[in-house]
Amino acid sequence: MLPTNIIAKFRGSLLACTALLGMSSVTIAGDAPSVLDIQHWETEQGAQVYFYPTSNLPMVDIRVSFDAGSARDPEALEGTAALVSAMLTEGSDGQSASTMAYRFAELGAEISTGVGSENASVRLRSLSQSQYLNPAVSLFNKTLSAPNFAADTFEREQRQQLQSISARQQSPRALAIDALREVMFAGHPYAHPTTGTVESVERITLEDVQDFYQRYYVAANADVVIVGDVDRNQAEALADSVLAGLPAGQAAPALPEVSGLAESFVKHVPFPSEQSTVFVAYNGIARQHEDYFPLYVGNHIFGGGGFASRLNAELRQKRGLAYSVSSFLMPMRAGGVYAMSIQTRNDAVKEAVALMQTQLQAFIDQGPEAEELKDAIANITGGFPLRLDSNSKITGQIGALAFYGLPLDYFDQYVDHIRAVDSTAIQAAFAKHIDLDEVAVIVVGPEAPEQP
Amino acid sequence: MKANKHTARPWWHGYAAGLLGLGLSSAVIAEASVPEVHSHTLDNGLKVLVLPDQRAPVVTQQIWYRAGSMDEPAGATGIAHMFEHMMFKGTENLAPGEFSEIIARLGGQENAFTSRDYTAYFQTLSNEHLETAMQWEADRLANLVIDPDEFQSERDVVKEEWRMRMRDNPNARLSQQLYATAFVNSGYHHPIIGWEPDIDAYSVEDLHQWRAQFYHPDNATLVIVGDVDPKTVFSLAEKHYGPIPAGFQTERKPRTEIKQHGTKRLKLELPARLPRLMMGYKVPSLVTAEEAWHADALTVLAALLSGGESSRFANELVRENKLSRAWANYTATARAQTLFTLTAIPNQDQPIEEVEAVLREQIERLKTELVSTEELARIQAQVVASDVYQRDSMFFQGMRLGIYQTAGLDYRDALRCVERIQAITPEQIQKVAKMYFSDESLTIAELKPLPLDTDERPNVPQSLEEPAHVAY
């Protein structure tokens, strides 16, 4: 949100997928009213709808999400999901992309698409007055249900995607994330970059795009989140209008479980930088795992809690080794990763990696101190209102809840779950899930790291 | 998330300062009820702006100092940013990092940022804790301690930040060279993060001087947005910031950029994958324009060219395969003469001369052809709607007020921006295009990729700057 021509003191969360559900619950004493009274229903076609009314601003956010991320890419055609997502806004219902864009703009409506390894979403933001909302929803529906998929557009979007791949190859951070996925999810559909590779994208045909769309962009494979200034009846009508014309289809089958790293591994990606981008990664857990809360709170103390975390204190504040150092859980549906991350000058990589590993060892051996735990719980619970203070954030949080199949009262219960975490549980969860002997060290920079 | 895939960023990107505004129709605005800002100035000169927003029990405190990288002296470039880092390193009452820990325990978020025009610090937290945040923000203004050891270690952190943002980022280095070439004597010449040798040479004394010059209540604006009562906020401001004495404001040198005579060109050859072309025209801002509508018309122009999927660049360049990507950028709230930039990523193997020709054709059209009322109406509709959408973010609302006030504009102008944008006519757009998009004030910067396995270091002595080829 900040313009790029300003620079900040430290940087926020690491990977978009980890930011998804970093939430906690509100501090309300006594008979707590519902924190976020989410209404839920299923459409006749089998789509799951989640609705939260707000009335302070005359606007509505609608987010339709399909289980159609790059994990669903066909074999050898990596990058298909991203190409499908990009093609949705390139013309629909026989109308050109520019005609569609002009009509959205005239209504003041904004449409955007997004795709990751787990899912693909299409969002509409519109004014809530019916003279703007109704035509905007109609356009949105055509975007979802009647994309043109024209041959010339396909060729252009394919070229654009090849350029995106080139752009990633000049970003140390993007290269490091690609390597992390490749190593930690080897053999799993999460392993490849969402944009695909040059070879795979060149192989994709328009027919592949159409096939993928027909299989995954169906009602039974969709979650719809509606947040804004409409009532329940309007929301039900909106959900039906948005999905009209999409076949019921079938939900995508569950992905195989991530088997994880079998033995320690060092991966060096040569890059002519003055600073190396480093991940030190271990097998982690899936988002729905029962140990999520102790790991979440523990990670907050260790390296996920920003400026006050241990990693930041030791590597940045005490030693000036990095501007950016942290640790994160990457919990996905079918498994996960636990990783530490640093960007440091090339000649400090060895020292930094050793320090981070020593810190993690000590954390697992001794667990958090009582004071640290108290502060972390205070931070997570006290920060809850901030995670839900705008329609945009609420839409994102409900979207994540829907995708991971979390209970509707998840936000109401969250504070209790966080407060129930104690030092023993954190230590036990870390000891159980983080195996220090199975580690992947990934370095993007000019010099190869030593074997662990 | 690809909000705007062809133009690479939303069209309001360049003027996050907030020109977006009111409505498709006045009805939209009326329903959204224009926010009411409460203003009060303390005796020591601190301007306090309060914008109540009751949607969540949350508040954001932002303090804006009129001290950005443009105010830095030669030899100490980047000191505004270095100082910003030191503001987290302890006071007479708090240990290094303790303010951050206090905010963390309260569940708050905090950070700070430095731009060419300002430095700002913020905390966002539950509204019951506003006073704590105010107490310690005031404390570091009044009682900052600059410990030499803390400074040394934090300078290493800044150096790592420089490596991450600048040294290892070819696109950032291109933009840096564009500004350094376009501006000769203005404070916009050097990068916000500073030149590397200057970062290496900072002293504690530099930091003390910076503080003495700029960190005073009468050089600051306090912005509070959230579920608060303005009267209470004013009395808390009086209690915590009121006792801090006003500063001795030295007159700033104007550093008005000297006139440019002819197009400047530079080529940056670096290990990279994608070539890139940037064209920057010298233009006025709301602060420097002879008439404010010039800046507003430039804002509309930027939206017209690259304001999202319905813009000219998206539809006439990218969708017509003339360029891979292109966008325009303009900051209307700049404190000095600034650049209106056009940035393009060529198609594969496209000659860079062709990229320039394609962009120039767009510029020429603006000068020769009047924008249709239909196209203008479309942009204005977006402006109206996005003014409503932006109220979804308390933080953004605060930023908009802070940036305007700090730039020396009236914060009320921020609230009037939609009316101003709506008043812009096709004739005015053509007129500013003719006035400002001239070869005489143009700078063109090209990034030419070298293979990524090129080691650039042996060719470049450590003490030298980027291997930029500058031709005037």
Question: What is the secondary structure topology, with strand pairs?
Answer:
The complex is a heterodimer of chains A (452) and B (472).
Chain A: E1 6-8, H1 16-19, E2 39-42, E3 48-53, E4 59-66, H2 80-87, H3 97-106, E5 110-115, E6 120-127, H4 130-145, H5 151-169, H6 172-184, H7 198-203, H8 206-216, E7 222-228, H9 232-243, E8 265-270, E9 275-283, H10 292-304, H11 310-318, E10 324-332, E11 335-345, H12 349-366, H13 370-382, H14 384-387, H15 391-403, H16 410-419, H17 423-433, E12 440-445
Parallel strand pairs in A: 3-7, 8-12
Antiparallel strand pairs in A: 2-3, 4-6, 4-7, 5-6, 9-11, 9-12, 10-11
Chain B: H1 26-32, E1 38-41, E2 47-52, E3 58-65, H2 79-86, H3 98-105, E4 109-115, E5 119-126, H4 130-143, H5 148-167, H6 170-182, H7 196-200, H8 204-214, E6 220-226, H9 230-240, E7 264-271, E8 276-283, H10 292-306, H11 312-318, E9 325-329, E10 338-345, H12 352-368, H13 373-390, H14 394-406, H15 411-415, H16 417-422, H17 426-436, E11 442-450, E12 468-471
Parallel strand pairs in B: 2-6, 7-11
Antiparallel strand pairs in B: 1-2, 3-5, 3-6, 4-5, 7-12, 8-10, 8-11, 9-10
Spatial strand sequence of the major β-sheet of chain A: 2-3-7-4-6-5
Just name the CATH architecture of the largest domain in chain A: 2-Layer Sandwich
Task: Summarize the main sheet of chain B.
Answer: 6 strands, mixed
What overall form of chain A do the CA principal axes indicate?
globular
Helix content of chain A: 40-55%
Radius of gyration of chain B: 23 Å
Number of domains of chain B: 2
Euclidean distance between termini CA atoms of chain B: 40 Å
Number of strands of chain A: 12
The CATH superfamily of the largest domain in chain B is identified as Metalloenzyme, LuxS/M16 peptidase-like
Largest interface: A-B, 90 and 102 residues
Helix content of chain B: 40-55%
Strand share of the residues of chain B? 15-25%
Gross morphology of chain B = globular
